[in-house]
Every structure is written in C-alpha cells, then in structure tokens.
Amino acid sequence: GLRAALDPERAYELDRRHVFHSWSAQATVDPMVITKADGPYVWDRHGNRLLDFTSQLVFTNLGHQHPAVVGAIQEQAATLCTVAPSHANGARSEAARLIAKHAPDGLDRVFFTNGGADANEHAIRMARLHTGRPKVLSRYRSYHGGTQLALNATGDPRRWPNDTASTGTVHFFGPYRYRSAFSASTEEEECQRALAHLEQVIALEGPSTIAAILLESIPGTAGIMVPPPGYLAGVRELCDRFGILLIADEVMSGFGRAGEWFAIQRDAVVPDLLTFAKGVNSGYVPLGGVLLGEAVYSTFAQRPYPGGLTYSGHPLACAAAVATIETMERDGVVAGAAELGTEVFGPGLAELAAHHEWIGEVRGTGVFWALELVTDRASREPLAPYGGTSPAMTELVAACQRRGLLPFANANRIHLVPPLTITEEQARTGIDILDQALTAACAKLG
Ligand code: PLP
Known about the structure:
Blueprint: H1 8-18, E1 34-38, E2 41-44, E3 49-52, H2 55-58, H3 67-79, H4 90-102, E4 109-113, H5 116-131, E5 135-139, H6 148-153, E6 169-172, H7 187-205, E7 210-216, H8 231-242, E8 245-249, E9 273-276, E10 288-292, H9 294-299, H10 315-331, H11 333-355, E11 359-365, E12 368-376, E13 381-382, H12 391-402, E14 405-406, E15 408-410, E16 413-416, H13 424-445
Parallel strand pairs: 3-14, 5-6, 5-7, 7-8, 8-9
Antiparallel strand pairs: 1-2, 2-3, 4-10, 9-10, 11-12, 12-13, 12-16, 15-16
Helix pairs in contact: 3-10, 4-10, 7-8, 11-13, 12-13
Bound molecules: pyridoxal-5'-phosphate.
Keywords: Pyridoxal phosphate
Pfam family, one: Aminotran_3
InterPro entries: Aminotrans_3, Aminotrans_3_PPA_site, PyrdxlP-dep_Trfase, PyrdxlP-dep_Trfase_major, PyrdxlP-dep_Trfase_small
C-alpha cells in the first residue's frame, strides 16, 4: 500500500517489526507516528495536534509542507530527478550561488554532502590535506555528527561508546559560564580564561600537529551556549597565529536559526571552512555541505581533492534549498527570527524563570533557546544527570505533550527551537503551555 496513506496503527506495527532506530535500545523504542504536518504543527496517530517546538531535529526552519519548497521539489522531480555529481545542473549551481551569497565574506565555493556529519568529515579531510597536520581540536559539550570521525570530534556522551578508533581528536573546554570550567564569575572572565585555556591546549598538543579547530558557532544539542562577545574572534586570532584552520559547524545554528544567516556573523568572524545542513532546505530532502574560503580552495585548484559522494548536490535536495533560501529572502525570515528572539522568547522565558524554581538559566538568541533546569538554584544540581534523564524530566515532557506541545529535551534541558516562521501568537502559546507543564510537573515531582 502507499506509504503515506498507510493506516497509522499498521505503520506503528511495521515499524516495531522491521525498523531499527537511532541511538536506542530497540526493545524500548516507542515512536510517535506522525500522520500529517503543517507549518509548526504535527499530528499523531490518535489525531492529536502538537505544536512542534523541536523543528523535528532542529531542521524544519520554514515549518512543515511549505508550498514553495514542496512546489520546487515537484517541479524538479518532473524535470530532472537526478544526475551524477560530475555533471553540472541548474538546481545545484543556483543553490551554490545562493548559499555563497549569504555566507561570511570570501567563502565562495560549496562542496555538497548528504548531511552534517559527512560535511564535517570532509571539512576535516580538507583541513588535514591543506595543512599537512593530523589533529583536530573541538570542544567538550558539542555534537558534530554520527559517523566515526565526526563522533570522535563530538564532545557529548554519544561519543563514548564510539571512541574505539580515535584519530587525532583532542577536546578542550569552551565558554559556559553557568557551569564554568574556569571558576569565572563574569562573561569577560569566562571569555578570557577559555581563550587562555585553548592557547595552552594548543601549546601542549604542539601547534605544528594541529590542522583545525572545529567549533559550533553556537553549540546546539549540547545546550545552546551563546559564546561571549570576543570569544570567536579570539579563537580566530589563535588559529591565525598558529597556522590552524577554523572550521565553523553551522549545521544547527545556520540559515537563520540564531537571527543571522550564519551564527558566526554575529561576531563578524570569518572561518576558513563552514559546514551546514538541516536548515539549508528545511530538511525536506537530505542535504549538507562545506563552504570553502580561497586558501583551502587553492590547495585543490591543481591537485585533485580525494573525496566524493554519489549524491553530491542531488537536484531534488538543491531545488529544495533554492526555494528555501528564496523564501527566506522574500519573507525576511532571518530578521523575523531575530525579532522573535528579542520580542517574544527573551522576555517570555525570563518571565517564566521568575515563576519557576526549576529554571536555573535561560539562554539563547533568535529562535534558538534553552532552559537549564535544576533541582536547586544555589547548588545548580541538574534536574537530570549529564547524558541521562530523570522522572522529573520525563514527566515534564509528558505534561507538555498532553497539552499539545512537542518539546525538545536533552538531559536537564528543554530547548525551544520551533520553525523560524512561527507567529508571535504561536510562540506565546508554546511558552504558555511550557509554563503550565512546569507547574504541573513540579507539583507532582518537585
Ligand atoms: N553538527 C551539528 C552542530 C549538528 O547539530 C548535527 C546534527 O544534529 C550534525 C553536525 C550532524 O548532522 P547530520 O545528522 O545531518 O549528519
């Protein structure tokens, strides 16, 4: 039978019979069947409508079923579904032009991949070949993807069971004032000490062994820690001083999420390589890529780049990217995201924090926010352990869902990451539901 029209109970049964799930003990998996989606809403198999404050895995930046993107995929499918990557095609050429147009200055060439992890794998490969050096430095509390090297570079618990063949990855602490690794009490102190720490790690590892520093411009899944002003510029300066390349991972933070086309533009810093995926086409068809600056590009001007993918720049994915970016331009989606941050999420969540003891810190920008939940504000004891969960977190998520909100939960945090196109009213509704759910869950388990 046709997949989309399959009876939802049957879809669930077949899933449990045949589908092997990501990051899960298979016997415990209990997926929500999504039968329908529209803008910021999804419907489950019982007919419940949920306001999607996750953008799935933070990728439906334009919401679900955007007609411009659906139309572009249909039109491209009717014209030319696929070609080998060695050929040129209009969808890929135009997607590359539009991505380069909005990228930091000088990042003018695009290598397309299928998603974020392989974008990071290729960026690291490029950096190693360009510098002739083996190591990659990345921060604790980061996520760079589910393939071997991208996981070695990752700084969250998903790395642990996969760190069997760690190839030249070294971790350092980034700025995170709420749980400072440097006992800093101000943003400035945190920034200075984090940079001094990184400089020491570089010195002790040996600058001549380090190809790249790989950094999410704003760490996403790890907790949306917006870096203090000056941090990214400081990292850029260290990279320049020691001949190290800066790779900005903008897989989650890019394409408007942080209120700029790319989050690193908040600090006017230009990386040597920038990786993207997710929001580039709202995730309608898998797509990622690496943006290259002139220096790395020149390395491969006369010498072949030893890497490639069957679907590098798939026409359906690139057509979706063109339509996504054109829609973002036409509708002022990036400025709208910035405004939602300053007008709705910033004040709305500060208000929430004033009423709920569980909220230890609110942080974010644009449509990229996290609530750090604690059992005790003084000790900052997390409401769930690092990399784990707790009855209180489970109850909070359930309380949100019962009230029609799909929240993004990670350890002791709730992330508020809806589509950038959400209306102010919908955003307020989501915050109100979270308010009620916090009251209910805290009354039960607080
Ligand atoms: N980098 C970051 C910052 C991410 O958030 C993710 C995915 O969540 C990835 C890389 C990996 O992307 P993908 O799952 O498309 O391989």
